[in-house]
Amino acid sequence: MQCHRPGLCALALVLGCAQAPEVKTAGYVAAEGRVFWQEPKYPGQEQGSGVSLVAEPELEVASEDGVHTAVARPFYRLDPYDQRRSHFDVRKASYQVSSSGWEAGLGAGVFTWGVLESHRPVDVLNQIDFVDAIDGSAKLGQPYASAGYTGERASLRVYYLPFFRERTFPGVDGRLRFAVPIDTENAMYEAELGPWHPSGAARFTWSEDDVDIGLGIFSGLSREPRFVVELTRVQVVPRYDLMQQISLDAQWTTGPLALKVEGFARLWTAAFQPFVGGGAGLEYSFFDFVDGWDLSLAAEILLDARPLEAPITLFDHDAFAGLRFAFNDTASTEVLAGTLVDVIDGTTMMRVDAGRRFGADWRAIVGASFFLGPKGTLESAFLQDDHVTARLAYFF
Amino acid sequence: MKSVWMTVLVAALGMGTAHAKTAAELTRVGTPEEQGRAIAGELDARNAGYRDLVGEVEMVLRDPSGSEAKRRFSIKALEQPDPKIGDYSMIVFDTPTDVKGTALLSHGKVDGEDDQWLYLPALGRVKRISSANRTGSFVGSEFAYEDLTGNDTGKSSWRLLGQEPCGKLSCLKLEAAPRDPASGYSRRVLSVESTDFRIISVDFFDRKGARIKTLSYDDYRKVSGRYWRAHAWTMKNHQSGKVTSLAFTSMRMGTGLRAADFSAEKLKNAR
Q: Which residue from B61, B134, B260 is facing A152, i.e. has the nearest CB?
């Protein structure tokens, strides 16, 4: 082995590879400004307009033959107002060995199940980093051990998840929080072992011609908390119950049209309270419709039949409409917009983002979020939290 | 005995060129359509047996004002011996850095649309995508998606237009009219030099019959001791004046890739 960089060679030795390792870097650092123009709704909340700094660098070391791979992807956000939003996480820190279709992995990682765009009801492995993004697009790294086999058309993977990550919530100072701040330091668990109660999961995927299918099974701690009011301290505490779940997601893609469906059947708590949930949608693309521009439209519905005492979901009877406009220019200019409407109470969340690249390594995105709807719903906590964002990121 | 030994050796090394037909043989008889099909078949035959390809590509996009944008990506391809199935390919981006790790997988089909999946590392999600985008630009370049994938011989009607000198060589002028009504082209005209059947250039004609682009292949090198492969491609758009150059900084064949290396689930670990 040629040793030009002793540190890497040491890592290569740990990985047990006899060849020169391949090192790759990725990730970004970003400045993200937010401006809120309405008064905060709750006492203690700061106005919240300001710039937060985000870093999410990635380092990957792989053996030359690709059998051994080690990845680290830490994450940090520095928020000027909310101490809870200033947070560190390990999105990824994993070692994987793979050979002729078989693979085994160990560490922390992010896994995504499901096919819908607005919300993926079957996606249950990772905890949501709610303080980072209320739409669930940011996820906390989940500790895992996995083993699997990938064939040409099908794959099977099993997961052992030894430790549970609690959902993040804004602090007293933060915008986009509920009426009473969530006391994240005193979370309650149905399981005796608390966060050390292990979870297990398996996923099977299958692709044949126009159809892609995923089957999932999960047993362990629900990533969704329900909220318990501690009367003695007037605090709201998250409580994580047990759950067992099977799920199915499928997509049929033909021409410019994609039809999607996903759903789960869940047994909630040790009492095995049953309920189902899921969604369906379609996506249609107009390619090169004028001057090389692409327009994709998506429409989805989300339904969830959980009992009142189960964890609250924002996606119980909602309709989504979204669009993506791509200019296909050298700067990869694109516009994304989406609206989620609760069809029963009319609660509406809207988000629009427009982004383009500058040079080879910079990307700027400006966006806006709006919340509309009646008072008295869970989402009504955000009614005065309309905001615009501007993000400038440097990628490496 | 010598000739028998040579035959065995050549066959064992997979280097048989004994059955390669010459331009004269292919153009001796038949209608221009039959000759065109025969030459297209010979192009296929001379490329057959490569098994798989692994390459690194640098792309430079230039507009008439002189501004440049660069893209770097790796490409893997797997040959499908069954002529009814198109080749598999996987492209993984390295730059621009905001799309680093983005991977595009295609399972080609001779009849019907290719199967395509996209992996977006920021979302950690593999998404099945529509492959109906034939005419759109590949990452802002002058290459349309249909210029890079789904060009199996069976997808076009072929015709030999004639033979004319091209530089020091003699070139067969070959017309390929796409059967796919969604194609942006009425026809492509290939200039194929008649000794080693290397494609020298391709003219692209839009649906109105106007010549809109020309692709030139240069820097031909033999890969795996057998296959002529152009390592420099230049696509010039005659209407906009924009030029996209594509250079292979490395290219290897027969590396032992398997079909399972081209599965949607593998995209997450693509490098």
A: B260
